[in-house]
Amino acid sequence: MSAIWTEEEAATTAPGERLKIERETQKLEKRLCRQVGQAIVDYNMIEAGDKVMVCVSGGKDSYALLDILLKLRARAPIHFDIVAVNLDQKQPGFPEDVLPTYLTALGVPFHIEEQDTYSIVKRVIPEGRTTCGLCSRLRRGILYRVADELGATKVALGHHRDDMLQTFFLNMFFAARLKSMPPKLVSDDGRHVVIRPLAYVAEKDLIRWARHREFPIIPCTLCGSQENLQRKQVGEMLREWEKKHPGRIENMFGALQHIVPSHLLDGTSFDFKGLKATGVPDPEGDKAFDAPEFTAPSPLRIVQL
Length: 305
What we know:
Elements: H1 7-11, H2 15-42, E1 51-55, H3 60-75, E2 81-88, H4 98-106, E3 110-114, H5 117-124, H6 132-150, E4 154-156, H7 161-174, E5 184-186, E6 193-195, H8 203-213, H9 230-244, H10 248-256
Parallel strand pairs: 1-2, 1-4, 2-3, 4-6
Antiparallel strand pairs: 5-6
Helix pairs in contact: 2-3, 2-8, 3-8, 7-9
């Protein structure tokens, strides 16, 4: 049985097991709130008086983002407003009543924007080709316009830690760039601040939380139906690494937060051409001739022969 339960499971679970599951659920909720709160503080994502537009797609990540931000707002030392926004892209079979019903019951202000981007994407992109690029550009432009109309000062997206790592490897493998998803950015036109409060959250925790909260998930028939996406392949690679080497994901994500430009090769980030000996010792200086300082995954045992 899963450590996170639904109401149906609760009714048939023994009291002792039920107590254990409740504790696990409380621990998960505390971890999610702590990680989201820490990301908000670390990157100054939300400030007093902000109106945060939470983009809700109908997937587990955006549902969880809205859910956790509402919990944090209730206990935050500052006041900020939240408005949920969904872009109805007119995908065939899209259940138009699900999100309005859910958001109304939640009691959060919301706006449903109806734009037929689905037809545009299907008309422009040849069958079998990846639709994500055009779809995301169309969606981004529409959401920025809606943010202006609603007076939103921040646009919150549901990308999580695993999304950021996948993007890093996609850029490295296919674009020759050391680049990931930033936790906070200013849009290209300089008018909107985009934040990713789930930056520190693992996808596996979001899956567990979505199951516990029983979010009414709406599948995507565009990107969600493409099985050969490079992003999916990179995601499978990372999951396999984590399975074989527990803790590797945390280490890789930590590396994104500890960049050493002087030990890479980008001359625009570090002045290699102007680098000269100064005669002044640097306690954080070159260690190129030292042995690599890697932490062993487990204590080493010395065997006397």
